[in-house]
Amino acid sequence: MKKYLGGVLAVALGSTLLFSCGPTERKLPIYGERSPVEREVDGKKVVDTIYHTIPNFSFLNQDSTTITQDFFEDKIYVTNFFFTHCPSICPTMQRNLLKAYEKYKGNDKIVFLSHSIDFKYDQPSVLKDYATKLGVDDDHWQFVTGSKADIYGIAEKYMVYTKEDANAPGGYDHQGYLVIIDPEKRIRGAYDGTNDEQVKQFLEDLDVILAEYK
């Protein structure tokens, strides 16, 4: 059964707000499926928790360069799904993500990754023009494209709904979440990029996770 952030967002935000009321040294929760694994340490049985993680990937970015998870090694990153000619939620979502990009510009601990779900039109040259117009002038924000199977497949791993739909505005249906991934490839937060209150929480939570991995 596929699980998307639409089904867990309320729980996620509730947990985040709950953690927000705690001490200054709070940590963000970890989302996704998890399973216990038993192992033996010094003759004693201990149980570890294996968390949902983002698998390896390979996409082509706005500079026609292949981007893999090696680029994000030891970094926190924020990911989302969009397309350049989106007439609905994307402009607002990307403007709000730009706030985070500008806030942390020059901070090598955090980067950004936007996947285009329009695998037909959004080729690297289109993504490059889009990034330039948005004001992105370094490699801290990657805009990537790939095959339909690869882009839509990785969206499921981030628990974000994406679909090619002729009846949707622009021909694609998708969720506008900004998803925080930690250096261990785990989902640590998800926020509606079109909602001012959730974007405010998102910016605050980036400070929290940066403090965790300082």
From TrEMBL:
<feature type="binding site">
    <location>
        <position position="90"/>
    </location>
    <ligand>
        <name>Cu cation</name>
    </ligand>
</feature>
<dbReference type="InterPro" id="IPR013766">
    <property type="entry name" value="Thioredoxin_domain"/>
</dbReference>
<dbReference type="InterPro" id="IPR003782">
    <property type="entry name" value="SCO1/SenC"/>
</dbReference>
<feature type="binding site">
    <location>
        <position position="174"/>
    </location>
    <ligand>
        <name>Cu cation</name>
    </ligand>
</feature>
<dbReference type="Pfam" id="PF02630">
    <property type="entry name" value="SCO1-SenC"/>
</dbReference>
<dbReference type="InterPro" id="IPR036249">
    <property type="entry name" value="Thioredoxin-like_sf"/>
</dbReference>
<keyword id="KW-0479">Metal-binding</keyword>
<comment type="similarity">
    <text>Belongs to the SCO1/2 family.</text>
</comment>
<feature type="binding site">
    <location>
        <position position="86"/>
    </location>
    <ligand>
        <name>Cu cation</name>
    </ligand>
</feature>
<feature type="disulfide bond" description="Redox-active">
    <location>
        <begin position="86"/>
        <end position="90"/>
    </location>
</feature>
<feature type="domain" description="Thioredoxin">
    <location>
        <begin position="48"/>
        <end position="211"/>
    </location>
</feature>
<feature type="signal peptide">
    <location>
        <begin position="1"/>
        <end position="20"/>
    </location>
</feature>
<dbReference type="GO" id="GO:0046872">
    <property type="term" value="F:metal ion binding"/>
</dbReference>
<keyword id="KW-0732">Signal</keyword>
<protein>
    <recommendedName>
        <fullName>Thioredoxin domain-containing protein</fullName>
    </recommendedName>
</protein>
<keyword id="KW-1015">Disulfide bond</keyword>
<keyword id="KW-0186">Copper</keyword>
